[in-house]
Amino acid sequence: MRKVILDVDTGSDDAIAIMTAVLNPELDVLGICTVNGNRSIDNTTENTLRVVEHIGAKVPVHRGCALPMVVSLTKGRRECVPFAGQKDKKEDVHGDFMPLPAATIHCEKEDAVSWTVRTLMESEGDISLIAVGPLTNVAMALRIQPEIANKIDKIYIMGGGWHEQNITPAAEFNFWIDPEAAKIVMNSGVDIVLVPLDATHAGAISIHVAEELAQCDAPAAQLAAKLIAKRLDGYNNWQPMKDMTTVPIHDALAVCAAINMDVLEDVHFVNVDVDCSGGVCDGQSVCDMEAKDKAAQPNVHVALNANRELFEKMLLEALTKKI
Ligand code: RIB
Ligand code: CA
């Protein structure tokens, strides 16, 4: 089994990612770290606890950073942190809370960054991270203890976009919420697999997956069916895919990549940097696909496509399981 630490801003696709990771027999989820992103740290932590409790998992949850590293310090740069989302609007793909009872389990006393640093430093260097929210926790861990860069096996990141964006004309949400954190992680020297919007949009799954999951009484299947349907409605009002019967489940694709890299296609080892200028391209992942900057070294494996059939199969296999 591959040891992994999840870092999430739960959110609907994070929830599906958590369940896919915990229920897949090839992953040993050591812990789940929460971060501010889709909603405030209070909500993303509560949502994560609700999902863990819903599937009956015994996985520790550690609360992480409540704000990005620096963006909110500059007036006018990022007014909406914590992000309130499109509250109660048709475009909202997450909602403030998971459609589950309030959690009765609690997160651990040790915060996400301290726990991640301690766990990695005590390890044999055989732990991978799967980060599917803003990279604030991971960047802070690298700042507190740079040595973890030599202890992390791989980092699978959902974030960024080459030809695809979502939150601004230039940027993807996770990188846009905390550009400095993304820049720190991209330049950390760790072996990174980046799953950007180009891959997650190509891997947008059919609504038939939700219909199939709804037929299964497993708790994960029932919740995932609801969340996929909500996401399809939200996306068709906000950012419709070419095929409007499909919807991206961004974060779960990053989890599936940690299980089987065949789910990603058209992967390029290139230099990826992040714009932190605060201008119109703030938070943009700058993927040097043609190695134009001779001074920059390749630092990230970027996937531009996905194997949708394999992705759907992996989701159905995991989410129909019970603990
Ligand atoms: O841009 C997509 C990413 O932003 C996903 O991780 C989603 O959960 C949101 O965090
Ligand atoms: Ca997320």
Radius of gyration: 18 Å
Instruction: Quote the average pLDDT.
Output: 96
The structure class reads: alpha/beta
User: Segments where pLDDT lies below 50 for 5+ residues?
Assistant: none
Query: Sheet bearing the most strands, described?
Result: 9 strands, mixed
Largest beta sheet: what is the strand line-up? 3-2-1-4-5-6-11-9-10
| DSSP helix fraction | 25-40%
Principal-axes geometry comes out as: globular
Strand content: 15-25%
The number of distinct helices, counting runs of at least 4 residues, comes to 11
Along the chain, the helix and strand elements come as EHEHEHEHEHHEHEHHEHEEEH
What's the β-strand tally?
11
Q: What would you say this structure looks like, in words?
A:
The chain is α/β, with parallel strands linked by helices and 323 residues long. It has 11 helices and 11 strands. The strands form 2 sheets. Strands 3-2-1-4-5-6-11-9-10 form a 9-stranded mixed sheet, sandwiched between helices. Strand 2, helix 2 (41-54) and strand 3 (61-63) form a beta-alpha-beta unit. Helix 1 crosses helix 11. The chain is globular, with a radius of gyration of 18 Å. It binds alpha-D-ribofuranose and calcium ion. Alpha-D-ribofuranose is lined by residues 9, 11, 13-14, 37-38, 132-133, 158, 166, 172-174, 250-251.
